[in-house]
Specification:
With 468 residues, the chain is α+β, with helices and mostly antiparallel strands. The protein contains 12 helices and 19 strands. The chain folds into 3 domains: 4-61, no CATH class; 100-188, Roll (Pdz3 Domain), CATH 2.30.42.10; 192-467, Alpha-Beta Complex (2-enoyl-CoA Hydratase, Chain A, domain 1), CATH 3.90.226.10. A hairpin with a 7-residue loop joins β13 and β14.
Length: 468
């Protein structure tokens, strides 16, 4: 049995974990005594369970693993994106945001006990092996994923360069699971790829938002300006299947196309945690027309960019509804113990729209034609944030303002934009299929026709109004 002094130590350690998070990220006042009393009561329960497990479990458990599992359980109960990062996972994440890391090259999330592929990263082992957005990974080298945390599953997918791993996948449109062998490699992420289409349109594909994204985007635009000169009719910014990344890069990419106005508003639980990012003068395209392509694989930072350019009428958004991840995760270092990835805020577009569990709706909806082998069960449909278990509820800025005023009894200056905000509805995600052959890429070719004047936004709006 655990001695009283030993039990007290465990309880204090658990409380220290909670306190570390609130100290780093929150400016809120200390909770009232009644709340503290309840926390201590719950810690008593935690200590009692921990004592029984350590004393009576069939095998002697590893104390550090017990605490790590308890922390993960606490965070997994909040939302799909909060998690504890071990020291190794924290280091790996830091390397990844710099644009280079080891692994398979897929962005993943956890859904119903299995790993779901958000999007494969272009020109990586996963993409070359044919892994697709929406695939569910059930086994790794024949071992079930069920029971593992997302971080544990990701750790198993990482390994030495040139070492193979077999993934067992379930895919819509296929009745039975199937295996895919992938050989691990060093993943070099070039976040921006570009080329000129014909002799009059610049095409930029942004695959992720890492530390190199804005600088590479600026270089791409400058290069295409030199290539096309006065023949340039506009730019296509392709954000399809871009799973997101760094918030500051989403802001700076949006700023690159805007001369003024709000880019994004991030709002936490307290009014003092609200932050608003604004554009600075200077548009790298010199005011050229822009078409942004999105689909069900466009998430997070991609949605910030699309939403900002849409609200300022700076770009025409073409494609299908985006993923709907409208929350901000803050990385909170915990010294030598790794870090905490905690959802700390929702973000809103300049007009006050929350994207959380809703997504960005394009002005012009253009669906990609699915190949015959994918049509049976509408294969390659990303379910979106609204379908993830435990996701944050959709909340528009108008309701958030009201709730904060009720809680704080204080007024907040209104945004300069007067766009009305509709009630939040939870529906996000759409098809994430993109043809490899540009000739068959309906969304891309539609964007080219818009920029070349073959199609017009006004005509499409009129058709939409008549259909309604």
């Amino acid at each position: 049995m655990m001695r009283k002094s030993e039990y007290t130590l465990w309880a204090l350690l658990a409380l220290a974990v909670l306190a570390a998070g609130s100290t780093v990220v929150s400016l809120a006042k200390s909770p009232p005594a009644a709340t503290n009393s309840e926390i201590y009561r719950q810690l008593d329960l935690f200590g009692e369970v921990l004592e029984r497990v350590r004393a009576d479990y069939v095998e002697a458990p590893d104390d550090s693993k017990l605490i790590e599992a308890a922390i993960n359980g606490m965070l997994n109960g909040l939302d799909p994106h909060s998690a504890y990062l071990t020291p190794k996972h924290f280091r790996d994440m830091q390397v990844q945001t710099r644009g280079e890391f080891g692994g398979l090259g897929i962005e993943v999330t956890m859904e119903n006990g299995v790993v779901k592929v958000v999007a494969p990263i272009e020109d990586t082992p996963a993409a070359r092996a044919g892994i697709m957005s929406g695939d569910l990974i059930t086994h790794l080298d024949k071992e079930q994923i069920s029971g593992l945390t997302l971080q544990e599953a990701v750790e198993k997918m990482r390994g030495p360069v040139n070492s193979p791993i077999t993934l067992t996948l379930m895919r819509k449109g296929k009745d039975d699971p199937f295996d895919v062998k992938v050989v691990r490699d060093v993943i070099h992420i070039n976040p921006v790829k570009y080329n000129v289409e014909g002799d009059d349109v610049g095409y930029v594909r942004v695959t992720t938002f890492n530390e190199q994204t804005t600088a590479n985007l600026q270089k791409a635009v400058e290069d295409m300006k030199k290539q096309l000169g006065p023949k340039m009719k506009g730019y296509i910014v392709d954000l399809r299947n871009n799973p997101g990344g760094l918030l500051d890069q989403a802001i700076s990419v949006s700023d690159a196309f805007l001369d003024k106005g709000a880019i994004v508003l991030t709002r936490g639980r307290n009014l003092e945690e609200t932050q608003r990012s604004n554009a600075r003068p200077g548009d790298i395209t010199d005011g050229q027309k822009i078409v942004v392509l999105i689909n069900g694989g466009s998430a997070s930072a991609s949605e910030i960019v699309a939403g900002a350019l849409q609200d300022h009428h700076r770009a025409t958004i073409v494609g299908t509804r985006s993923f709907g991840k409208g929350s901000v995760q803050t990385i909170i270092p915990l010294g030598s113990n790794g870090a905490l990835r905690l959802t700390t805020a929702r973000y809103y577009t300049p007009s006050g729209r929350s994207i959380q569990a809703k997504g960005i709706d394009p002005e012009i909806v253009v669906e990609e034609e699915l190949p015959e082998d994918m049509k049976k069960k509408e294969d390659q449909v990303t379910r979106g944030e609204a379908n993830l278990r435990g996701h944050l509820r959709a909340e528009d800025k108008e309701n958030a303002d009201k709730e904060n005023k009720d809680n704080k009894g204080a007024e907040e200056p209104a945004d300069s934009e007067d766009t009305p905000v509709a009630e939040a509805e939870e529906e996000s995600g759409s098809s994430s299929y993109v043809p490899q052959d540009k000739e068959k890429d309906t969304q891309l070719n539609y964007a080219l026709d818009l920029l070349r004047g073959i199609k017009s936004v006004d005509t499409e709006a009129k058709k939409k109004a008549e259909a309604n």
